[in-house]
Amino acid sequence: MAESETMRILVVDDERDIREGCVRVLKRLNSEVQTAENGNEALAMIKDTSFPIVLLDLKMPGLDGMDVLREIRAMDETILVIIITGFATVETAIEAMKQGAYDFIPKPFDPAQLRMVVERAQDKISLMRQAENLALERSRTLADLSTEKSRISAIVESLPNGVVVTDTTGQVVLINPSFKHLLGLPMDTEPGGNISDYIADEELCHMVTDISRGEYSEGMEMPPHELAVDGKYLIARGRPVPGESGQCLGAVVTLGDFTAMKIFDQLKSEFVAKVSHELRSPLSTIHEQLEMVLNDIAENENVREDQHLLSRAKEKTGGLIALIGDLLDLSRIEAGGTGYNVQALKPDVLLGDIVAFMKDRATAKNQTLALETGDAPLPELQADPMALESIFGNLIANAINYTGEKGTITVRAVAEDNRLKVTVADTGFGIDPRHQEKIFEKFYRVKDDNTRYITGTGLGLPIVKGLVEQMNGEIHLESTPGKGSTFRVILPAG
Asked: Quick check: pTM over 0.70?
């Protein structure tokens, strides 16, 4: 978009922080930004003022985002609506894109993500305006676009979405690099062939051919068409290109990649299934065992047996609470919600406190837990103490859990090249090489004869890895089955 061109943008969201944050970011894009806190207010503003771009939250009280989207499309189809969606509204966001939304941005988003999606919309609007001016230049034709070195061609060439233009026979007269990339075509692929030479999906080819021949009236768009290519999920949209007298000159088709949305959807399904399973089992156990305890108490049975059953119920409840806590921690890390309490820390003091706190758990298994810091002073860290406690607390707890009776856990901290290197080494069960690349994946747990009775959520190590990476650090694993494991964390000092 030209620097001198100011574009009006409307942000519609019931969360004031989201609205104010968008205003701060978008004003730097030479934009006039206005806000609305609900759908009715937004529609009233759109009736009075032209907004080429609208950022629209799907989940709002009263008139929801889908209804607002339909009203906007009925009022002006040229308005580019960017959907603001949360994790729980993935299916709705996909449906909104099928209903004509231009793009989406998932919550929480950072300024760079917001700028990128809005700049993409601004580029598209600039292209549309340039295309309107192009229609006034009677000497140009669709075929000229394939060799035109004008600014419009430069924009088309640089668009992140794929673009292909056909004539009335379905022959391709323009194709941009993004289209070739999305479909896995060689970059030296030239226009000139039939659309079926470029797209393997027969249904999509038929639709493009129908548009090219004028079987869609002016202003109509073909229904969005989804296709999968080399592991990517793509969505295609097309519309006829009208001539001066209203005749159809061909078709223009855009191709977008919504693989991230599909992956989000799959992850959500896996997440729900996993959590449902993990919650159902302990809750069922608690229910059944408490019922037995109540029956026993009513019948004045042995108190010691009652205590055992209550202990089992307490153990299962503890596992449930740990799972929920880990899920909340992981959600906070993925949302970037760490580092709010950054302060100067002495690693030897912090590690000493953690080891002292965990020593009772080690002693209960007749294990030896020790901290070694050497003679050289350790570098001071600028970090969130809760993040460091979570990192090293999880690693030490794992070492205790996965080390047998009378085992040894050693925590060593040394300074190395202006960095802090902390190792947590144990003499425990060790990890088979085939599991070592997967243990940082969410919910992944090693299950064998040694670990089958060890409870856990499979989220501790993903939390550790997420926190370490947010602190620009590294984490490495060395492990030998039957001999033990060593986790090495390296953090920048200062």
From this structure: no
